[in-house]
Amino acid sequence: MKLYDEGTPAPNPRKVRIYLAEKGIAVPRERVRIMRREHKAPEFLAKNSLGQVPVLELDDGTYLSESVAICRYFEALHFAPPLFGQEAREQALVEMWIRRAEFRYWAPIGMVWRHADPRTAAVVGRQFKEFGEANRKIASDALLWIDRELADGRDYLAGTYSMADIVLLCGIDFGKFIGLDIPKEASRLHAWHGRVSARPSAAA
Amino acid sequence: MKLYDEGTPAPNPRKVRIYLAEKGIAVPRERVRIMRREHKAPEFLAKNSLGQVPVLELDDGTYLSESVAICRYFEALHFAPPLFGQEAREQALVEMWIRRAEFRYWAPIGMVWRHADPRTAAVVGRQFKEFGEANRKIASDALLWIDRELADGRDYLAGTYSMADIVLLCGIDFGKFIGLDIPKEASRLHAWHGRVSARPSAAA
Question: With 0-12 CB in 10 A as exposed, 13-18 as middle and 19+ as buried, what is A14?
Answer without folding.
Answer: buried
